[in-house]
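Sample 1 of the test manifest.
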Amino acid sequence: MEGLIVSNVLLWCLLLALAFAVMGLVRQIGVLHSRLAPAGALMVDKGVSVNEPAPKVTAADRNGRPVNFGYAGQKSQLLFFLSPTCPICKSLLPAIKSIAKDQADRLDVIYVSDGDMDAQHALIKEHKLENVTYVVGPEVGMTYQIGKLPYAALIDQNGVLRSKGLVNSREHLDSLFEAEHLGSATLQQYLHGTQEHAHSHSHSHAHPHNH
Amino acid sequence: MQPDPIFVIASAVTVAVILASAATHKVRAQARFANQVEDYQLLPKMLVRLFARLLPVLELTTALALLAPFSRPYAAPVAAGLLGLYAAAIGFNLWRGRKDIDCGCAGPDQAQPIRPALLLRNSVLVGLAVVASLAPYAREMGFFDGFVAIAASAVALLVYATADGLLANSPRLLKLIGR
């Protein structure tokens, strides 16, 4: 009899611990769910709104040639805001370069930076950016109200801002193109279904819809 | 048939803790709870505020009364009635097709739409309240019986919290896999 009671107490204690662990797991899954959605480029909610004409601004690149931002043109523009003092920006440069190479026929990639000119030269040399359009100066960043780096904005051929966001990885960068393609301002908006689709799309592949 | 006192005590403690925590949620976010009551569209507007004010008091009183053996036979039917009332409110709105209103089931931090699964959850709770209302079979209660009753209600509460978490997660999961 004594043994049975001991075993019963022990079993209750173990059951309690197990139930506690399961509850903890479920809570963690809940937290993961709430953290999962903003996996795309994070939109810092200020500045120019997406799917509106991008502000028009002209700035000189590092060789003194004028570069137009936000005007209608033959190609879309990808603005990549970076700084020589930002390590994540540098880690993204290979991804930016490969996007520029892949989509050279429809996309102009413009690097926008600010700060010390010597540091810019060192960065350009280190990452072999001699032939790219590289703007140094605060005008563009101030016009687009960029508060955090690395930041990217995508402007289509008609001069409409299609997507923008803080980009910390190759996936975030790709999400900008995906956001453009889906017609949502950001992937978060698409996921939360808060915006009606700006334009209907007749692509053959199916998108997951979440209604 | 008279159940063993352990069943009655464990059910009563479980229902009491659930009701008490529901009452504290309602008191902590009073305006929010009033909005939820209004969302259910079951009461005339004048009564909503009054109902939202009185319901937590009733819940808390019932929870306390469930713990004491002499008041338990009266409190348990009230608890069953309350839980049944919630189920009826959810069921009625589901029947009206208003699936998108916030259930208000699991406290201020967990918004979840009303679904048939919540009816199941409430009917289990009503079952527990019914067990708590039964007159137990009279026997000597030792220390070990007390331990088993407390441990059983603790496990029941943890399982309840787990089920609640799973219920709250399931709409998010469906969203994630794109249904």
